[in-house]
Amine oxidase domain-containing protein
Amino acid sequence: MSGILHIIGGGMAGLAAAVEVAGTGTRVIVHEAGRTCGGRARSYHDRHLDCRIDNGNHLLLSANSTVFRYLGITGALDTLSGPGKPIFPFVDLAEDARWTLDLSRGRLPLWVFQPHRRVPDMRLPELQSLYRLIRAGDQTTVADCLLPGAFTRRLLEPFSISALNTLSDTGSAALLGAVVRESLSLGGHACVPWFARDGLSESLVDPAVAYLASMNAEIRTQTRITGLDVAKGRVTTLHTAQDSIALSEHDKVIVATTAPVAEGLLSQHMAGLTTPNAFESILNLHFRLAEAPRPVGSFAQCGFMGVIGGVTEWVFLRGNILSVTVSAANRYAKHDHEELARTIWSELRSACDAVLEQPLPSAPDAQRIVWEKRATFAATPEQNRRRPGSATPLVNLALAGDWTNTGLPATLEGAMRSGLRAVHALGLKTPS
């Protein structure tokens, strides 16, 4: 008998595990505490804006092999949008400069020798920062590896903050080095940017839910697992607020919740379990306009733009909605939200007016601030050491989540990779 795989948590890690196992002969049941799956990567209708928005912005790179495998299985590859080549438009508000980073497709970084394709004012010796990151030890911070100069300020610093959701003076160089190894060091073909064309749910959640239904997997929303019983080194029962689910000797469990929830469920059964206990927030602002802005140049090609020298870090344009993402946002936690929104709108006007057919209005029609207080674990060397692996002392239970030890920071790729690792740890599939 193959038994049942119970997945606790319907975020990206849990969905990735479910998609991987569905159709293999093992019955899959996903227990999701919320009304919908997706976790931090989902869409919803915002009543104030009266439109559908994402709870955050996620930029994928073509190097994210696990994400693209998942999208391929669920039939969602055609829901992505992007320029189709490794280009990234930037504006530096502090120095009134604009450029488009245009990476060479091959591994040979020819772009660094062509001023119109590289970061303005960068010096070739600054590339040593990449070598330092790739070779960084577990105790090293990103700031320890970065050489001063335009390459750091205009590319590596914003890249680091976006990838780690942690400031570079405390961020783990080893984690950022892992991202560099899987992207920049492989050449431009690994750095083609993509994002959800219509919404995160339309790309990452809805197709997966439909695929799981077609594979006879079951998703139980609004079902919170409140506890579990353990006997003889294995999970024997799952408890909800309404009832208990007895597990057979063939059943297996993946805990794919947040780190605090996982620790609450498992600490009494797994002595010595450590999980990350420091977290960073992400600030997202969505501005609705009466008419959809008409972008030009590389902003029109990409649909997004990096912003240096302000609070704003990335701006995405989708129809008549301009969305801004600010990572490592704990530093702004004490700021007045409305004043912060006014500052960011002013920055948007400075950043976007030159690349729009018509300038932005003095104020948006409506706005929504979405502050994810515990968006990711703080990607510091100390917190990275607290991340547990997928396998556990309980023979029928594995862990998944971007906070587990994937070797990557808390990204979509890391979350989905953790789901696959949990599946492999339980012996449900072997790594391909």
Notes: DSSP finds twelve helices and 20 strands in the chain.
